[in-house]
Amino acid sequence: MNVMRTLPQRGLPTVGAWCFLDSFGPDRVAMSVLPHPHCGLQTVTWPMEGAVRHRDSVGSDVVVRPGELNIMTAGKGISHSEFSVLPATTGPLLEEIPVSRGLQLWVALPEEHRHRAPSFEQVKDLPVAVGDGFTATVMVGEFAGQRSPASMFSPIVGADITGAGSLELPLRPDFEHAVLVLDGHVVIDGQDIEAGPLAYLGAGRSSLRVDARPNTRFMLLGGEPFGEDLLMWWNFVGRTHEEVEQAREEWEAEGLLDDDAAAASRFGFVQGHGPDAGPEAGRIPAPPLPGVKLRPRTRG
After folding, report:
1. Which residues pair with 101 in a beta bridge?
2. Which pLDDT belongs to residue 30?
3. pLDDT at residue 98 above 90?
4. Alpha carbon distances (Å) from 110 to 43, 70, 78, 144
5. Which domains does the chain have, with CATH numbers?
6. pLDDT, tens digit, for every residue of 284-298?
């Protein structure tokens, strides 16, 4: 599956507490991600086409569809899997596989929340803000007078916006913001921005003028600048090399346990992936650590 990573970037490790952004698809490739671990973060799954089945070690087993939001709070440790939901009539031909497209984002948990117990929530009824020329689905935080019910642990915003013409978007000046164009083309501050790269806008704006072509869709991300140094490696967000090394060691050791013992361990056990699960059996092993000490990402 085609995946584009636009955060973190060199010199830009975060936008608010947003610390990771992958855009996947559109592709006729079925998502098939075996159980893998996370800690120190929240995952935010936003499908745009296709449906994804999410299973995790706190017992969740749900399907998320376009317009719905999955929030998984890893805290001290969780594991999960993600598989595309295929129609029963799906055959081997490429054109018979549904299109998958969406965003996978991470939000760094602040110090006081990063060791909390893991949890999961799905929000199916998200608020919609309507402004002059635009419509915005508010995924997280508050935008244009509408607040998402999703549980977040830092001042943050994420909104999926469609519109055309000259748009005036209200912003919080204490937030830094970025825009990811999903479809179409926009002009911001005289700069042409097409689908693909993440455009960082900085902080201090109380509004944003966006000139959008017809059928334009873009994501607005923002939040209070994150004041903690983050060390990100593989699926872990920590603060030191030793923390990440310990998380890796625990995940690898848990792979040797039986299902009951794994369920009581730090990252837990995801039901449906035992040795008798056929192609969905197993888990993803951690890659080796690099030969040098990991260091936090810093702003350039």
Report:
1. 49
2. 86
3. no
4. 14, 20, 17, 25
5. 3-223 (2.60.120.10)
6. 999 999 999 999 988
